Amino acid sequence: MARIDLDHIRHAYGPRPTSAKDYALKEVHHEWNDGGAYALLGPSGCGKTTLLNIISGLVQPSEGRILFDGVDVTHLPTEKRNIAQVFQFPVIYDTMTVYDNLAFPLRNRHVPAAEIDRRVRDILEMIDLSHWADRKARGLTADQKQKISLGRGLVRNDVSAILFDEPLTVIDPHMKWVLRSQLKKLHRQFGFTMVYVTHDQTEALTFADKVVVMYDGEIVQIGTPAELFERPSHTFVGYFIGSPGMNVLPARVDGSQVTIGDQVLGLDHAPDIGSAAKVELGIRPEFVRLGREGMPVEIAKVEDIGRQKIVRARFAGQPLAIVVPEDGEIPTDARVRFDPAAISIYADSWRVGKEA
Ligand code: ATP
């Protein structure tokens, strides 16, 4: 397995890019640890596949270098990079048996037969296809075929990295959960470097140790699920992670005082907003306390979602979501307090403050 260095990478599909908007991938400069499980998470078109394809060698970056364990592989073709890839749709040999599909990459590399058998049987068990080992792949369902693709990605233990591009799209919802947990277990067991592209936050948060959130051709934060939840670096992360997402309210900051509409809050520090054109306060719905004390709100709607209620309110002229426990009281003259430790201040969409 390998450490992956993305060294000042930028990519434009068109010739002669002149401004930032011409780049599908704006500057990406990061080091990903050997043995890390990374999920690239973001909405459609934000550049996830472009970045994955740059790592695999399917796309050559317009600028910058990519290194595996310190070795520059920028100009090496995919087959020389020693990586395994699993795509959105199955890529398998229909005329081979399930067993042979998995054994193929190992036989190609002259792995001893006993070792092949051991690894193939382990993987068959993991993907729950042991009983299908001798069947031709042709007759299988789409999700069984995709499980073979996944298995083929995992069967080698000599790869630098395993890259997954939305691999669970064709898998049925229950099996998705099972496979995700198995991938995670396998990662703990073997310590593969894994990069997993998805636009589904549950998939990213359950699979990865580190989630790489992308937005509009940029990496806006790399963090553990807890970091993304507690300290979103960018308003997009706040909005994209969590359900409902973070409340982002237009604000004015003066020293340690924040004004939202006609309401004024005191902070325990004075955030440095520089000369930002846009200042916002972010607070997750889980950290808004609803009660009889604090700042006034108007309640518009209460959604009961089982163990919690989501209260949709208006605060200082802005929409505000509040998460209340199932048995939480919703007073008629409701007021709110924001948990001071959970407040983030954003200057031109980027978090500023004590440990921004
Ligand atoms: P999705 O989840 O829809 O696959 P993504 O986050 O993987 O999206 P990319 O496929 O990397 O995003 O696309 C990033 C941007 O680059 C988009 O604006 C897309 O239209 C553009 N793009 C992607 N592939 C090409 C291509 N081959 N030629 C030109 N533009 C492309």
Describe it:
This protein has two domains: 4-230, 3-Layer(aba) Sandwich (Rossmann fold), CATH 3.40.50.300; 244-352, Beta Barrel (OB fold (Dihydrolipoamide Acetyltransferase, E2P)), CATH 2.40.50. The protein has eight helices and 23 strands. The protein has helices spanning 48-56, 98-108, 113-126, 142-155, 173-190, 201-207, 225-230, 235-240, and strands spanning 4-11, 25-32, 37-41, 63-68, 71-72, 83-86, 161-165, 194-198, 210-215, 218-223, 247-250, 252-254, 257-260, 263-266, 279-283, 288-291, 295-296, 298-304, 308-315, 318-325, 335-338, 344-347, 350-352. Residues 13, 24, 42, 44-50, 199 line the site of adenosine-5'-triphosphate.
CATH topology of the largest domain: Rossmann fold
- What is the radius of gyration? 24 Å
Distance between the termini: 32 Å
Q: Which CATH class of the largest domain?
A: Alpha Beta
Helix content: 10-25%
Report low-confidence residues grouped into runs of 5 or more.
Answer: none
Assembly state here? single chain
**Strand arrangement in the largest pleated sheet:** 6-7-8-3-9-10
Number of strands: 23
Report the bound ligands by name, code or SMILES: adenosine-5'-triphosphate
Q: Biggest β-sheet: count, sense, barrel?
A: 6 strands, mixed
Summarize this structure briefly.
With 356 residues, the protein is α+β, with helices and mostly antiparallel strands.
List the helices and strands and how they pair.
Layout: E1 4-11, E2 25-32, E3 37-41, H1 48-56, E4 63-68, E5 71-72, E6 83-86, H2 98-108, H3 113-126, H4 142-155, E7 161-165, H5 173-190, E8 194-198, H6 201-207, E9 210-215, E10 218-223, H7 225-230, H8 235-240, E11 247-250, E12 252-254, E13 257-260, E14 263-266, E15 279-283, E16 288-291, E17 295-296, E18 298-304, E19 308-315, E20 318-325, E21 335-338, E22 344-347, E23 350-352
Parallel strand pairs: 3-8, 3-9, 6-7, 7-8
Antiparallel strand pairs: 1-2, 1-4, 4-5, 9-10, 11-15, 12-13, 13-14, 15-22, 16-21, 17-21, 18-19, 19-20, 22-23
Helix pairs in contact: 2-3, 2-4, 3-4
